[in-house]
Every structure is written in structure tokens, then in C-alpha cells.
Write a structure and sequence with these properties.
The chain is about 10% helix and about 40% strand. It is built from one helix and ten strands. The termini are far apart.
Length: about 150
């Protein structure tokens, strides 16, 4: 009987020592979500995210309403959609599938901090700026400083 009491007491001591939360769990990855809004009557809209990574950030854009099998230049710009700013970072080409949908991910190899004036992601009409008709924005998403 004495051994049983000692064994049960030991279990209570062991249980009292455990049960805490881990202190070395990874912190959440900073993510900014944004909405891509149609521009200039294009009907192109969607969503996007920017995820901070070590020494870089990853921009993901998902769009619908594009012309089937079309290609579009995209960038991160300084400022906001309503007040156009200069290009901050080029992004990967947006390429639509046969239904006019696209999903593209770009890795920008710099640490970032969204400036107080903000950034916006802009997708243009054409695949490059070789002709003026390619330049107009077809979808734009504002990012705010966190």
C-alpha cells in the first residue's frame, strides 16, 4: 500500500511540472492581404497577398476577368491606386489561362517595410511598355503600412 501511495504521489508531482505552453514556438509570418479592383472598365479583379520572408517578400496575385491567354506586366508602385506613383518593384508577368483567370507569385529579394504613403500592386493592359496601348492599368490593389 505504501508503494502505491508513493507512486500516485510521484505522478501528481510529474503532472504539476508539465502542461505549460511552449515558449519557443515560431511567430506568425507577417502577411498583408489586399483586393485587386478593376480599373478603366476592364472587369479584371481579384485578391493578393504580400508575405514577408527572410531577406525578401512574396507577392501573390489571383485575378479573373482577363482576356483568355493574355499576358500583363505588373509592379509594386509607391503611393495608392487613386494617386499613381513610381514603380518600386517589378513583379512576374501575369499570364491568363483559357478562361481568363491567372495566379502568379513573385519573389522580391529585398527586406521591406510598406512606407507610410503606402504601396499598390498594379497590373497593366499589355505584356510590356513597348506600345502606349499596353500601359493603362486594368487592376489595382492598395496596401497600407501595417
Amino acid at each position: 500500500m505504501r508503494n502505491l501511495v508513493l507512486a500516485v504521489s510521484s505522478l501528481f508531482v510529474i503532472a504539476a511540472c508539465g502542461g505549460g505552453t511552449a515558449t519557443n514556438s515560431a511567430s506568425p509570418t507577417p502577411t498583408i492581404a489586399f483586393t485587386m479592383v478593376a480599373q478603366n472598365g476592364s472587369g479584371v479583379s481579384g485578391t493578393g497577398t504580400i508575405v514577408k520572408s527572410t531577406g525578401s517578400f512574396i507577392v501573390t496575385i489571383k485575378l479573373t476577368g482577363l482576356a483568355p491567354n493574355s499576358s500583363h506586366i505588373s509592379h509594386v508602385h509607391n503611393g495608392a491606386c487613386a494617386k499613381a506613383g513610381g514603380i518600386a518593384y517589378p513583379l512576374s508577368q501575369v499570364v491568363a489561362d483559357s478562361s481568363g483567370a491567372a495566379a502568379v507569385q513573385s519573389i522580391v529579394p529585398v527586406d521591406y517595410s510598406v512606407p507610410a504613403a503606402g504601396w499598390y500592386v498594379n497590373v497593366h493592359h499589355g505584356p510590356d511598355f513597348s506600345v502606349p496601348a499596353n500601359g493603362p492599368s486594368i487592376s489595382c490593389g492598395d496596401l497600407s503600412a501595417a
